[in-house]
Amino acid sequence: MLNPATRNPLTEEDLYPLFARELCRQELNKTDAWIEIPGPVREMYKYYRSTPLVRAYGLEEALGTPAHIYFKNESVSPIGSHKINSALPQAYYCKQEGVTHVTTETGAGQWGAALSYAAKVFGLEAAVYQVKISYEQKPYRRSVMRVFGAQVMPSPSMSTRAGKDVLTAHPNHQGSLGTAISEAVELARMTPGCKYTLGSVMNHVTLHQTVIGLEAEKQMKLAGEYPDIVVACFGGGSNFGGIAFPFMRHNIHDGRTTRFVAAEPASCPKLTHGRFMYDYGDEAGYTPLLPMFSLGHKFTPANIHAGGLRYHGAGVIASQLLKDGLMEAVDVGQLESFEAGCLFARAEGIIPAPESCHAIAATIREAVKCKESGVAKVILFNLSGHGLIDMSSYDKYLAGDLINHSIGENEIVSNFDGI
Amino acid sequence: MLNPATRNPLTEEDLYPLFARELCRQELNKTDAWIEIPGPVREMYKYYRSTPLVRAYGLEEALGTPAHIYFKNESVSPIGSHKINSALPQAYYCKQEGVTHVTTETGAGQWGAALSYAAKVFGLEAAVYQVKISYEQKPYRRSVMRVFGAQVMPSPSMSTRAGKDVLTAHPNHQGSLGTAISEAVELARMTPGCKYTLGSVMNHVTLHQTVIGLEAEKQMKLAGEYPDIVVACFGGGSNFGGIAFPFMRHNIHDGRTTRFVAAEPASCPKLTHGRFMYDYGDEAGYTPLLPMFSLGHKFTPANIHAGGLRYHGAGVIASQLLKDGLMEAVDVGQLESFEAGCLFARAEGIIPAPESCHAIAATIREAVKCKESGVAKVILFNLSGHGLIDMSSYDKYLAGDLINHSIGENEIVSNFDGI
Question: What pLDDT, in 10s, does the model give residues A202-235?
Fold first, then answer.
């Protein structure tokens, strides 16, 4: 990662204006294979962890597949998704260091809800910039954040220079995670006692999510199986890395040959159609330059309902792993994702978040291959969250009002201006 | 219970046109203290049971109370509430007996969602009459039912005589559980292969919910405590009975002195302001006559957001227990319920269903008494469901747009025409 001003390798100190110092240390830590979860965070984890590992017998039967399908059910957390796993330590470290306010961006609102609650737990005030299209499509999420006592603004907003610039150029801009990040970063920089927090992409966020895979590893052992394929949806990469990385070390150290499949939306396909390059994490170019697969930091994704996957870039570790062939990526169209979600809901009784539907679609593709080949592979996917606050999306799908979005190569290139 | 036509004591056979035969047997069973859960239902329970028993440290701290507050978290079930506990066995018995279609009513939609999913599990078609005010206030719930493949109609509808009669008299009728029951009962009677199912009130439904209390009993033992007070919200009585009855036997047989507190809405207070009498379970008078506390079967409750508590009567066992002084009841205003719900959400990270907010409010009253007296009682309440699909209600509460509803004695009497 590079300092955007000097283009020198990023240092911990470069990140201090944005994040709690312990998070800066974790972000650039290259030596410790194991970083302990702080006691007060573990105490909070006890409220909902370990989350269940579930054998999806219903889905297997519906598909007629010999595959053994398991899912790690992160939807049972208090706020309904895996995001709380990182919100709690981030809020905790901020509190430890005397921070009084935290700010962040949110797409679908899963991360914003998690941070709002975590802030309340550790006695911090929270301000959340929510991507405008999600703010409007999913009003219940902003209500959740407000019940937890957070302040919620639609982004782009007039409260920051970054937001104003976008609105001046595009008065009807629907927002993107990239723009919302710019706004939150700006607020954190301009406000004493306020730090920025992030729901995905960065190393420390993915680190906090590895509790998912660490638990799943033990639970799979109890079930007497080991996954041949691990699947997760991919926005910035934290839920993917969270479940995949703990298993991936066994490919490297213990001769395992598990495949790791990231499922991204066809409308925002940085892994399958982006380029590996240095790019900014946000629209305005406030963040460090990250070596990653990206569609260009000014790329505005189509208004798909999986708001949490509408992000132009991929976390740097996942990007390098993909480049090195240690993981794979597939893109999934919106209609296929909701078809998979409805099939899963009817088979398993849980309505998945539109984001998680992408993981389910990719899982179904693999399970169907097993049916064709007659090989009973063990597939594990991460059910990153439930979709109970996204029912309007399902309504539109069932009414036939949703379409597939995809992007052309030209669109990507024209949006690219990284280094 | 009396046959409404003959006024003779009800027989199993009287119920056969409505319910699966095994459910009729359970309803009138006076001899068996223990009825086994069928294997296939236990297999489905494994997906989400046992549900967690949680010590509410956050709430205790927020209240500054010496009380030990525990809650049984039924909100982690696939459909977000305890209702699935009875939907699964009801659908199972129907399937066993060759039924092809099930129908029911639903208020807030928790029961309708549970039955829609359970029907799908056991290969049945489901048709749900949803109280019109909830159908409109909570559109996401009908989406949930539709994702599970059920047909959903707002009630009163023009599809039944009972619905038409109400609409003729009151064209803008907002619906009530009593009317929706009439419609579903009529559909079941008129349709070969179709049975009616019920989400509360009746004995067999409460029986299925006792799994909550049986689990809680074992979990409290693991925690090394025994409840001094057990609290649950009260609509028809199944979540209350589910958690309370397994503990209540120890008052009767083992000298325990636990108090059992049912929390009902001030706008629909059959336990605290109703009369013990024979009354119908539905608006049109299709059901057996039940000896119960009731506000009169033509009583139309105010449009509070706790749709699941908008029911005029109380289950017969709970009614008798209240009459005999073995349990207590309190009524809670709408504003107090949401205030309690927000306090709980911020302290525990779970946004409770508006129904469950009533249990929380009653729990808080007891915990505050403990603070005043300095006595550290052990309070257990049932968190019957989460409120993620009820966020519009919270929005209105936070915006100051909700009011308290109450009823006068006159209103109750004028609505009463039981025998």
Answer: 999 999 999 999 999 999 999 999 999 999 999 9
Instruction: Please indicate if any CB of chain B lies within 8 Å of the CB of A148.
Output: yes
Burial class (CB in 10 A: 0-12, 13-18, 19+), B398: middle
Interface check B3 vs A, CB under 8 A: no
Single-letter residue type at B66 = P
Q: How far is Cα A301 from Cα A406, in angstroms, rounded to an integer?
A: 9
Mean pLDDT in order along chain B per 10 residues (419 residues)? 94 95 96 96 93 96 98 92 97 98 92 96 96 87 94 95 95 89 94 96 97 98 98 97 98 96 96 95 90 92 86 96 98 97 95 97 98 98 94 91 78 55
Q: Give this prediction's pTM.
A: 0.89
Could you give the ipTM of this predicted complex?
0.82
The DSSP line for B31-64 is S-S--PPPHHHHHHHTTT-SPPEEE-HHHHHHHT
A378-383 and A229-233: which strand pairing? parallel
Query: Looking at the DSSP assignment, which residues form a beta bridge with residue B230?
Result: B260, B380
Phi, psi of A100 (to 5 degrees): -110, -25
Is A121 in CB contact (< 8 Å) with chain B? yes
Distance from CA of A252 to the nearest CA of B (A): 34
Answer yes or no: do A144 and B388 touch at CB < 8 A.
Answer: yes
Tell me the pLDDT tens digit for each residue of A111-131.
Answer: 999 999 999 999 999 999 999
Mutate to test the interface with A, among B45, B124, B388 (most CBs of A within 10 A): B388
Percentage of chain A modeled with pLDDT above 90 = 84
Q: Determine the pLDDT at residue B417.
A: 54
Containing B261, the helix (H) or strand (E) segment is strand B259-265
Closest CA to B48 of B385, B374, B306: B385
Q: How far apart are CA A321 and CA B72, in angstroms?
A: 43
Q: How far apart are CA A274 and CA A407, in angstroms?
A: 11
